[in-house]
From TrEMBL:
Location (main, coarse): membrane
Protein name in the entry: Transmembrane 9 superfamily member
Organism name: Acorus calamus (Sweet flag)
Any one of the GO CC terms: Golgi membrane
Highest taxon in the source lineage: Eukaryota
Family (UniProt): Belongs to the nonaspanin (TM9SF) (TC 9.A.2) family.
Biological processes per GO annotation: protein localization to membrane
Length: 73
């Protein structure tokens, strides 16, 4: 991902391989909260840092069907 022509590096998830040798047993997670720190010098972006909350995870190991609703309350 890029912001103001600067690359942004960071992890968006993780794989739990602990104690498992078969890749089909791995568990896959995405981070639910990703924070961006953007540093400026006057009107120029000079640095971008990405931080995640390692405890806010969504398990995406199994196939799931998501339904989009246009009605948001």
């Amino acid at each position: 991902m890029y912001y103001d022509d600067l690359p942004i590096w960071g992890f968006i998830g993780k794989v739990d391989k602990e104690g498992k040798t078969d890749p089909s047993e791995y568990k896959y997670f995405l981070y639910k909260h990703i924070n961006f720190d953007i540093l400026y010098n006057k009107d120029r972006v000079i640095e971008i840092n990405v931080h995640t909350d390692p405890h806010a995870l969504a398990d995406v190991t199994e196939d799931r069907t998501w339904m989009w609703s246009s009605c948001i309350q």
